[in-house]
Amino acid sequence: MTVLALTGGVGGAKLALGLAHVLEPDDLVFVVNTGDDFEHLGFHVCPDVDTLTYTLAGAANPETGWGRTDESWHFMEALGQLGGETWFRLGDRDLALHVRRRALLAQGRDLTEVTAVLARSLSIRHRILPMSNDPVRTQVHTPDGPLAFQHYFVRDRCQPTASGFDFAGAESATVNPMIPFAGVRATVICPSNPFVSVDPILAVPGMCESLLETGAPVVAVSPIVGGRAIKGPTAKMMREMGMPATTVEVARHYVGRATHFVVDEVDAESEGRVRALGFETAVAQTVMTSLQDRVDLARAVLDFVA
Question: Could you tell me the sign of the dihedral formed by the alpha carbons of 277, 281, 283, 287, in that order?
């Protein structure tokens, strides 16, 4: 029996690491958002896949949560001197992964195969599956028109007002055929941004239906604690879309798409309102500042859905 973990970004990767410490490789599969992917400097960049890859390999930058540890930036400095785009920074060590990915894709391999090769090269034993091998691209609605996600998130540092999101290509994308829906004992939606990390995964036709049709619990962990996002612009996005930045509103967003919901201890008084939305609920310490925190939350989530 397998646990599926849906994840994207730094916040999701924290719980993903905890799950990887608790569950054996045969018992856990990661399904990762690729709505953030884009073509840049001739490379296929997969920010969420790479964040999880480096995290599981023990190679993630501990200060940022993304990129590689012990990084240097000679390539970007030289590129800037030549007048190239430097707003999206690829470190020298990270660049090696992108060169390798480009070469593997040029051989005709799909993104799932390429991701598996890179993971094995970094001694990762758990399976990392892109949500789809087809391109899906998140676009952010702003007063000045749609923005590609990385332009909004990195180049513009989340400053534009976000009024909504589209996932270009999702309607024609196919769910990754390697996702083992048969035999799933639980799906865990890690505490990633619901709108730009989880929604792109669930937007792939058949994904949400397949998860629910397993009959296994689908448990979402709130990324909002005490009205604030632990990581990233989730709370800002919610306010700009006219939604209170609360764990109850996150739960409301998952109505019909999840069956269980984990509330942080700080928001324990909200548990009843979340339960009234139709969820099975649990309260746990969801703020993860150490490896032990990640492992403890993973165990709490797994105990909850058991």
Answer: negative
Split at pLDDT 50, 70, 90, the class of 66 is confident
Residue 171: Cβ-neighbour burial (10 angstroms; 0-12, 13-18, 19+): exposed
Local structure of 21: helix, strand or coil: helix
With residue 282 as reference, give the H or E element that holds it. strand 280-284
Q: Token pair 């240097």 is at which residue? A: 72
Q: What is the mean predicted confidence (pLDDT) over 218-240?
A: 93
Alpha carbon separation from 167 to 14, 198, 247, 258 (Å, rounded): 25, 11, 24, 20
Distances (CA, A) of 119 to 11, 18, 97, 128, 275: 20, 18, 10, 8, 39
Of the pLDDT bands very low, low, confident and very high (cuts 50, 70, 90), residue 190 is very high
Question: How far apart, in whole angstroms, are the C-alpha atoms of residue 184 and residue 211?
Answer: 9
Do the beta carbons of residue 191 and residue 234 sit within 8 Å?
no
- Judge whether 50 and 93 are in contact, CB under 8 Å: no
| Separation of alpha carbons 235 and 221, rounded Å | 15
